[in-house]
Write a structure and sequence with these properties.
- The protein is mainly beta.
- It folds into two domains: about 5-35, no CATH class; about 65-140, Beta Barrel (OB fold (Dihydrolipoamide Acetyltransferase, E2P)), CATH 2.40.50.
- The chain is built from one helix and ten strands, in the order αββββββββββ.
- The protein has one helix at about 5-15; strands at about 20-25, 30-35, 65-70, 75, 90-95, 100-105, 105-110, 115-120, 130, 135-140.
- The strands form three sheets. It has a four-stranded antiparallel beta sheet with strand order 3-10-8-5, with no helix packed on it. Strands 7-6-4-9 form a four-stranded antiparallel beta sheet, with no helix packed on it.
- It is rod-shaped and about 110 Å long.
- It starts with a helix and ends with a strand.
Length: about 140
């Protein structure tokens, strides 16, 4: 092999990015190994993000007795979509009176008032998902 061809081969292997190259032709053996390439360092600069701070009103202290959900499910304020709600804010209720329904596993479970009093606040909307122990009503 001619010297010029060997030089061209060395340049071609160097430019190709190969880390190792071997060539044999008759009695001629050429073996090339590149130096350890260091990976490129890529600097990641996070994009500036605008922070919006919302000021929420402080929750008012609940004065009254709380009626909580006894199970997880969907809350319904009325016995059917067309019917009037069981209770409204300001209604007087008696112990045992139905305040709403929680549907769990296709079973309708009536939520009854545990207290006599006036419905001070309704803390859940119709068809909202409720958790076990979640506050539903405030009875004053």
């Amino acid at each position: 092999m001619e010297f010029d061809k060997i030089v061209k081969l060395i340049h071609a292997v160097g430019e190709s990015g190969l880390s190792e190259f071997s060539f044999e032709e008759g009695a001629l053996k050429i073996s090339m190994r590149g130096g350890e390439k260091q990976g490129k360092t890529v600097e990641f600069l996070p994009k500036a993000v605008e922070i919006k701070e919302e000021i929420k009103e402080k929750p008012t202290a609940i004065t009254g007795k709380i009626v909580k959900s006894p199970l997880v499910g969907t809350f319904y304020a009325a016995p059917s979509p067309e019917a009037e709600t069981f209770v409204k804010k300001g209604d007087t209720v008696k112990k045992g009176q139905v305040l709403g329904i929680v549907e769990a596993m296709k079973l309708m479970n009536e939520i009854e008032s545990e207290y006599d009093g006036v419905v001070e606040d309704i803390l859940i909307g119709n068809e909202d998902t409720v958790e076990y122990g979640q506050s539903l009503f405030v009875i004053a």
